[in-house]
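hey all, quick one before standup. I had two proteins in the batch that finished overnight and I want to keep them in one place so we stop losing track of which output belongs to which input. First protein below, input sequence then structure tokens straight from the run.
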Amino acid sequence: MAVSNSENDSINEVPSSSEAERPQVQAIRMPTIEEIRAQEVWNNCAVRSVVSGVMGGGLGFFMGMLLGALDNPIMQDEMTGRQQLVYNLKQMGRRSWGSAKTFAVMGLVFSAVECVVEKARAKHDTTNTVVAGCVTGGTMSARGGPKAACAGCAGFAAFSVLIEKFFDSHS
């Protein structure tokens, strides 16, 4: 099975040096008016915070459902199947409502603080995440007193930085 020289030559052709050095230039696409308006709406701190609160509430609801389903009644041996089902459904409802409120507040506070700090500093960096995490952690644990608020501040700030670094390394 012989291949002619003309076929080999066409396969092995190397582009001239001027073609190889020239970068590919692509036209710049300008955003449409709808895209600009959508970006302006999303850059509003109130909108961003409310959306984060709603999404946090949804996540908390499902986490509560999952964890509520894992609760075992203390008197499981004495309960009928129907009683166990009713007990588990009530536990899932209680847990999901409590987790939804907690995660909603957490998402709302974190995104609001991060957005306000980012707009005030006119920078998007780790400092914004540290401040937002500290305020959120301190707010969420403030009922436990000053020590709890400080521990919550430090813990949530560290956790926020770790999460941001994790997602930055994967993008």
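OK second protein, same deal, sequence then tokens:
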Amino acid sequence: MAHRRTLSARFPDMRNVSLDSPPLTPIPDIATLPMASSRKHRAYWIRTTFLALFVLICVSVYVLIVSPPALRPITFVDMDSARPGDTARPSRWTPEAIRLAALKHRRPHTIVASSNPRLQISLNQTQELAALSNFIASLPQNVLPSTVDPSQPIDPQLVLDFDTRGPRAEEELQTVVRDVWVRNPVMLYSKVHSSISREVKQLLADMYLLPAPTIVEVDERPDENVLVPLLFRLTSTNELPILLIGGRIVGSPKEIRYLAAKGELQRLIEEAGGVIDGARKKKAKKL
């Protein structure tokens, strides 16, 4: 027997369903899903955080106050300390043992250097005059302090620009003595308010020396009271001006005039490295 196919409530006629009709399957409510219901409230996490902090505080109080011996460092005792009648010696790891080991292995050369310092070089009269002239001719600002005793040898460290206690001090001193007279073959210590000084300066100016003579006006320097007796001691003279040619003292103004008249003064200047009429020839080339 053939069955008749008819429409039922379970299977409605899809031909009569429009787009505006409600869906056949109801949309589930997301709030009722298990995942949403399993989330913890804010108050739960606040209570958990405070509980963890409370446990941490309790553990800290117990470790620091209730049971402090547990934090003491472990001490070691040497094995041979167990011998009868022998007291226990601290381990090599104790601070006292480390300090003693450091003192034992300290480098000994520092003690030797401090107990045997290198002596400062001493200057003879010629070297002292060269060092003083180099000090004055180098810079106009170089002035001797008022505490210097002109009757005593001058401190080398005061007028020399190198370490006078160094291993090469003697070699550097010889270099200074040689170079100062090469740069200043003619050097005159004079006075501004002195007729004799003006006469000697004019005598040198008429030679047109190259390099030009180094003239130090002693009476215009603030260290005049120290420099004048110091120069008298080093040059064995008792009056200004003092003329130095190649580091050698020429003599009194009377002797200077005599040597200039005989041509000996010019010869000494040329032997020291000065050039007579050198400045005049240079000026003629410029013209």
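Flagging for whoever picks this up: Strands lie at 186-190, 214-217, 242-245, 248-249. The first strand starts at residue 186 and ends at 190.
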